[in-house]
């Protein structure tokens, strides 16, 4: 490379090989930068790929130690007759615990790719879901939403006979095409926990589909963060952004209050619980297995995986589950 000049211009002369080398180096820099950005996104925001999520969720099967310590030091006494004055002439009773199974679902479809083990492990076929709902309806169960359950825990509503809550995580598009028609057919309530940042992405609900579901009123819309990230152990800023913004985005879209939340992968700690409270949510669900929903644990309620059980096998399983 050399430089020459005349009266009006300065000329830069670059041999062909140096020019192509510069282009090659520029392309390498772009590729490396893109890979670095991709890896950062994968590590921080793309837990939504759900690779290994079944394993991750089943590992979150107990209350974290830091959360236990908070409740051990709280000077709050909750008894069957615990009350609080609502008005000068009325009292509200807060039940200490309610016996309510909360069932957890993800995909509801007929998986075409038999090699997709992750999707298969998280999937319930539409036929199985319908058989489960028929079983529960015929057995006299009353279907609630998470919001309905919050009303009971708030002392604003009575617990119905044989209550049960169906929850669907992640806001997959097959909820609209496969699960939602079944819910409408049998007129049963459910709660859909939506990853707000993934709306209109491939495999996820579109905004118009979500709006249609919300307007119908049969299905409650809950929040599941913006990017489906692991909240346990993350920075205060990251968790706050994921939790607060998830509610704001959904409420702006559906023009309804969003009061229930589900922790991605069931991962939470004391900080995450506090932020969910501060964000204005009234109830939240975990992946800890159980049925007895304690008042003080309303921000990490227990859930169960039905595991494809139908008929008497499903009823027997629910009757025998007491943890």
Structure at a glance:
The protein has 323 residues and is α/β, with parallel strands linked by helices. Helix content is 42%, strand content 18%.
Describe, in plain words, how this protein is organized in 3D.
The chain contains eleven helices and 15 strands. Helix 5 (126-138) packs parallel to helix 7 (173-186). The longest helix is centred in the first third of the chain and has 30 residues, at 16-45. It has two domains: 2-45; 50-320, TIM Barrel (Alpha-Beta Barrel). The model is unreliable at 37-51 and 75-89 (pLDDT under 50). With 323 residues, it is α/β, with parallel strands linked by helices. The N and C termini lie far apart (77 Å).
Profile the largest sheet: 5 strands, parallel
How widely separated are the two ends?
Answer: 77 Å
Q: Into how many domains do the coordinates divide?
A: 2
- The third-level CATH topology of the largest domain is TIM Barrel
Please work out how many helical segments DSSP would assign.
Answer: 11
Highest CATH level, the class of the largest domain: Alpha Beta
Overall geometry: globular
What is the share of helical residues? 40-55%
Q: From the coordinates shown, what is the CATH architecture of the largest domain?
A: Alpha-Beta Barrel
CATH homologous superfamily grouping of the largest domain: Glycoside hydrolase/deacetylase
SS-derived structural category: alpha/beta
Compute the CA-based radius of gyration: 25 Å
Order of helices and strands: EEHHHEEEEEHEHEHEHEHEHEHEEH
Secondary structure: number of strands: 15
- Mean pLDDT, rounded to whole units? 85
Strand content: 15-25%
Low-confidence stretches: 37-51, 75-89
């Amino acid at each position: 490379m050399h430089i020459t000049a005349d009266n009006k211009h300065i000329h830069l002369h670059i041999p062909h090989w140096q020019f192509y080398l510069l282009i090659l180096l520029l392309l390498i820099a772009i590729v490396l930068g893109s890979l670095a950005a991709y890896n950062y996104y994968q590590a921080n925001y793309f837990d939504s790929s759900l690779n290994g999520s079944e394993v991750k969720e089943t590992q979150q099967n107990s209350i974290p130690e830091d959360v236990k310590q908070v409740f051990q030091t709280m000077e709050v006494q909750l008894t069957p007759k615990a009350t609080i004055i609502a008005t000068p002439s009325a009292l509200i009773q807060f039940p200490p615990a309610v016996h309510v199974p909360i069932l957890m679902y993800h995909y509801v479809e007929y998986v075409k790719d038999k090699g997709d083990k992750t999707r298969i492990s998280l999937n319930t076929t539409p036929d199985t879901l319908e058989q489960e709902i028929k079983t529960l309806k015929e057995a006299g169960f009353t279907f609630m939403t998470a919001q309905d359950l919050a009303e009971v825990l708030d002392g604003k509503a009575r617990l119905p006979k044989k209550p049960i809550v169906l929850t669907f995580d992640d806001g997959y598009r097959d909820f609209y095409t496969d699960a939602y028609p079944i819910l409408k057919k049998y007129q049963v309530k459910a709660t859909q926990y939506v990853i707000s940042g993934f709306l209109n992405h491939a495999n996820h609900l579109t905004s118009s589909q979500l709006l249609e579901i919300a307007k119908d009123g049969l299905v409650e819309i809950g929040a599941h963060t913006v990017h489906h990230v692991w909240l346990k152990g993350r920075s205060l800023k990251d968790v706050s952004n994921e939790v607060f913004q998830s509610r704001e985005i959904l409420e702006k879209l559906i023009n309804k209050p969003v009061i229930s939340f589900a922790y991605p992968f069931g991962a939470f700690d004391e900080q995450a619980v506090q932020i969910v409270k501060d964000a204005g949510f009234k109830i939240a669900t975990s992946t800890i297995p159980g049925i007895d929903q304690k008042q003080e644990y309303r921000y990490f309620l227990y859930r169960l995986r039905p595991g494809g059980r139908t008929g008497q096998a499903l009823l027997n399983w629910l009757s025998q589950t007491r943890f």
